[in-house]
Amino acid sequence: MRVSLSFDEFSGRVTQPLGPAQTTDQSDIEGPLVFTLDRRGLATLVREPELSGAASQLVEPLGLAHTFFPRVPGGGVTAGHSWVDTIRYQGTTGGDQEVSSVSILTYTVQGDTLVAGTRLLRMTSEGTTEQTSRGNIAGQSFQQSAKGDMEGWYLWDRQRGLVAASRMDSDLRGTMTVAAAPFPLGLRLRARTQTRLKEM
Length: 200
What we know:
mainly beta, 13 strands, 64% strand, globular
């Protein structure tokens, strides 16, 4: 399946001790993120959006492609069914940033729920993630690593075989080394990603 993802809403804020805080919104993201998926949700990046401002620090296209849909087992599932999957990826994004990530998530089927007259399957996910990246920001070389927790839910439309809505929260802590700083900086990354299927 080929997926084209656009940002209807986006907001972010970056604070750091070496300069003023930066804010960003969807105007700093131009074009869609395009990727393909195999039958189990493994992603291959096709096209990245053009990022500017602080969005280039907060939007990680490779990670979005690999985590946008849940990893599903090979057979059917029923309420109470649970499975564990490891999401592992590495590559270059944003032109010159090298990223790698390993996430171990437990998925659990909660059962059916009715949303606007449509019966959907609710799944939850929770686990841990560890991420590293290196590259350049505003002409400054950097390297960072962080790890922490992820949790969220998906509403799956079984008739269409698509996610109707989802939410994923993550809270990571780590360190960041910047060429201009004489010592490593403490790092905290908090994010919430929400999606919904939009009728065209």
